[in-house]
Amino acid sequence: MEALFATTTGILAASGLYLALRGRTFPVVVGLTLLSYAVNLFLFSTGGLTTDGAAVISDSAGEYADPLPQALVLTAIVIGFAMTAFSVILAMRVRGDVGSDHVNGNRIDEPREDKS
Amino acid sequence: MMQHLIILPVLLPLLTGVALLIHRGGALTLRRTANVLSTLALVVVGVLLVAESTDDTIRYYAVGDWQPPFGIILVLDRLSALMVMLTSLLALGSLLYACAGDDEQGSNFHGLFQLQLMGINGAFLTGDLFNLFVFFEVLLIASYALLMHGGGKARTHAGFHYVALNLLGSMLFLIALGVLYGTMGTLNMADMSAVVTTLDTADLGLVKAGALLLLIVFGLKAAMLPLYFWLPRAYAAAPAPIAALFAIMTKVGIYSIIRVYTLIFGEQAGPLANLAQPWIWWLGLATLALGAVGVLSAREMRTQVAYLILVSVGTLLAGIGMHSEAALGALLYYLIHTTLVSGGLFLLVDAIAQQRGKAGARIVQSRTLTQPATLGLLFFAGAIAMAGLPPLSGAFGKALLLQAATTAQQYWLWPILLGSGLASLIALSRTGSTIFWRASGEKTGITLGKLRGAGVLILIGCAPLMVAFAGPITAFTQATAAQLLDRDAYVESIIARGDTGGDA
């Protein structure tokens, strides 16, 4: 399970980073979203991965999952969602105001030096 | 009541901010009054906190009475009290300025302003790394919206870069926290400081990676060299009162660097002791040098002030890199000075730009200003303070820093710091003479009203005041530096008292 978990997180992070470095706002936003998923998964795993471990105190449980990373992940997910929503709206606003979806504000048919 | 004072800098702006956001359609005067009153109250709380912190006990407030190392705590020591007071003073100046008309440009200015203050104060007070992240996010999301207050092409454009970069920074922050939690098993700063001495050798590499990742994150907030490129554009595009308030934002990064690398990875951290200081020293000097080049090359006053902020960030980072008690005390004095004066300069430059018609903030010949004498004198004072010429506070702070350098450090620090001061002086005198002397034509601009004048005066007026009261201020900053380096006292007052029930 650990290998699968690590690979998934790694691939998500790599794809997210690649997209975040692209030149257009849409891939950048998608890249940031993927990266935040990767980060959330990573945070979740920092307490160690357990199967069947109880997260809250119970009489029958022999093994406990570390509850703190779950609390951290919950906070991080909420903040991450809000930030992603904000960046989507902002990307649309940039498209409207600047007239281009390129992160440097270049139009497709214009040479790079003309703007910015 | 006094014991709850620690949480007031977070609660007060939160409540005011939420109330202002709910009543965002209310009368403008009412919203302005509420905001100014709340900020004034914050100044009072800040002064009380500083007064309380001078007895050198480290107090903490356990939220929900969950004692450390579990639960969330707010810690009050000299440094956090000082930063909270600094924030509220800066906020008061920029808020007064904004109330003269800048707040009408878009909705929700006042509510967001208070939420921004809550984030900043929270970041200064928290004693827990994850809460530092949460407060960073609070202050960032408010700053995203405030940066674009009033709208316009330049602002949305600079805003997207700012938001995307900071989102990446937040994710790095979380990864660093995950790594540190996975190896150390705690995120309470005092507890981490105790745990770091008992680490397995197998974990050392991971902890080191986590610690240096944190340095990248804080370096991004503080605008350290390879990560500063977002700053000049974003600050130049932001509305003046917001840019002035943002003068404290880079200092949030500086504060976090000081806190984490003296408390957790300081002298006592065994194999990890002082692992970041060499990086901070060289990168700080490089930031300083490049900032000076930027000041010289700026063709617009707002960009120029943004680069001046970069120069001060470089100076502060070099001060941290020197890691001695004297240097720490000196840099705290410089930090107070530079935050207030650069905030005041942002306001002043906006006031000047409003009197110059089309030329605006560009450094070109233009029409005569409506109040050349008043603004000229203020600009003169601000420029002297910022460039670091005697008799104002900039010179004093820099002299303290130069004095604190050891012989080996002097070879690097003296030429670069003095050279950057010279570069700032040349650039600012060119700007001043172009704007105030090479002007002609009729006067048509808006005069500086009482509110704007008060805002500028509060912030720039701190430069002579800080020299007049240099004795008590340096005594306070030196004691702060001593308290910062006394890691055992910090850990003891939080962990030990936490075990026996605490007093909060």
UniProtKB/TrEMBL annotation, chain A:
- What domain of life does the native source organism fall in? Bacteria
The record's annotation in InterPro entries points to: CPA3_antiporter_subunitC, NUOK/Mnh_C1-like
Q: How does it sit in the membrane?
A: Multi-pass membrane protein
Keyword Magnesium recorded: no
Q: Which UniProt keywords apply?
A: Cell membrane, Membrane, Transmembrane, Transmembrane helix
The compartments listed are: Cell membrane
Where do the TM regions start and end?
71-92
Single GO cellular component annotation? Answer: plasma membrane
What's this protein's family per the entry? Belongs to the CPA3 antiporters (TC 2.A.63) subunit C family.
What NCBIfam families does this protein map onto?
A: PRK09094.1
Q: Which PANTHER family match?
A: ANTIPORTER SUBUNIT MNHC2-RELATED
Please state what the protein is called: Multisubunit potassium/proton antiporter, PhaC subunit
Automatic annotation (TrEMBL), chain B:
- Compartments where found: Cell membrane; Membrane
| Residue ranges of every copy of the NADH:quinone oxidoreductase/Mrp antiporter transmembrane domain listed in the record | 127-420
Q: Which residues cross the membrane?
A: 6-22, 34-51, 71-97, 109-126, 132-150, 162-184, 204-230, 242-264, 279-298, 305-324, 330-353, 373-392, 412-430, 451-471
Q: Entry's Pfam families?
A: Proton_antipo_M
Which superkingdom, per the lineage?
Bacteria
Please give, as recorded in its UniProt entry, the membrane topology of this protein.
Multi-pass membrane protein
UniProt cross-references to InterPro entries, sorted A to Z: CPA3_Na-H_Antiporter_D, NADH_UbQ_OxRdtase, ND/Mrp_TM
Keyword Membrane tagged: yes
For the keyword Secreted, the answer is no
Please identify the protein, giving its name as recorded: Monovalent cation/H+ antiporter subunit D
Q: Which organism is it from?
A: Chromohalobacter canadensis
